[in-house]
Amino acid sequence: MGGFVICIANKSNRASLVIGRVYRTIPDAEAEARNMLRNVDEDKSEPDGYLYPASMFAPVELPEVAKQALRTAGD
Predict the structure, then answer these.
(1) Handedness of CA 57, 61, 64, 66 (dihedral sign)
(2) Of the candidates 58, 41, 60, 42, which has an alpha carbon nearest to the alpha carbon of residue 50?
(3) How far is it, in rounded angstroms, from Cα 35 to Cα 39?
(4) 27, 1 in Cβ contact below 8 A?
């Protein structure tokens, strides 16, 4: 299961990403090899997530209760 990141830059993706917002990542070894992250963005229209440059995010560690809430948000 994926982890969580916080958006630290949204240049050219202002409609899809909000700086300071936490996003759920989806594991994707091929994307990570190219310094990209696959995550579920604001519109949540694509359940498989979208690819974004990893430099736009910083990893965060959340309490389990927050992880559960974010994993089920929008279901």
Answers:
(1) negative
(2) 41
(3) 13
(4) yes
In a 3-state reduction of DSSP, which class is residue 58? strand
**Cα distance between residue 40 and residue 31, in whole Å:** 14
Q: β-pairing, 22-26 with 50-53?
A: unpaired
Is the separation of the CB atoms in 56 and 9 below 8 Å?
yes
40-72: pLDDT as tens digits? 876 767 778 899 999 999 999 999 998 888 877
Tokens of 25: 């990542």
Tokens standing for 54?
């990893």
* The two structure tokens encoding residue 50: 């979208």
| pTM of the entire predicted model | 0.82
Which tokens belong to 35? 């310094």
Q: Side chain identity at 8, as an amino acid letter?
A: I
